[in-house]
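As described in the Methods, two query proteins were run sequentially through the folding procedure within a single session, without resetting any intermediate state between them. The first query and its resulting structure tokens are shown here.
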Amino acid sequence: MAIQRLRTETRYSEAVIHNGTVYLAGQLADDLTGDICQQTRETLASIDRLLAEAGSDRSRILSATIYLKDIAADYAGLNAEWDAWLVPGTAPARACVEANMYAPEVLVEISIVAALN
């Protein structure tokens, strides 16, 4: 089966599709001036758009890796947005860790693996 790459840049592709699975690169908010709730909402909206482009949706997520700049300060806000966004009964395998981000204003980054529709 061929490998399909979407929105390929020099160093990465935003999505890679292979063998019925879509792998998303880490997604960020468009506006990095907001708080954790705003950044999480924007990040989840980006994931929705990219999954749709790849032929999947949030109900098909298999795994999520979430990176937070400050887990003590932002875990509750992230989870409030995540819980409201997630389709009931479809919780994926998930890891959430604190990480140094590439820029100080980035509060959250989320990487997704999902099954195609």
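Immediately afterward, the second query was submitted; its sequence and tokens are:
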Amino acid sequence: MIEIATSPATTTLAISGDLDLAERDQFPEIAARVVGLRRQLLVIDMCRVTFMDSTGAAFLISLADSGRRRGGATVLRGCDDRDLFVLEVCGALELFRIDSDHHCTPTPPRAG
């Protein structure tokens, strides 16, 4: 699931679950909404991402590239090493600022 929140200067995407091929149908609509908001800073909260493949990476890359062309910046927060590796293999890590100071709030274990 991808939730969008805005402030006067920032758009924040909070992503939870898998960011992969199975979720790709929602990517064009989300990208259009983010671009349409025209904020200078895009923060992508990856704290609750459970898996990202190259399709998810391509989605993030397209968002960062769109923002960069408008003079904006894209920040990744809560990204684990596995996700950073996928972006590095794609040759796109330089498109992002990495928020290394952010500490994710632990998710309580599921009952059952």
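The chain has a mean pLDDT of 89. We note this only descriptively and draw no conclusion about the first query from it.
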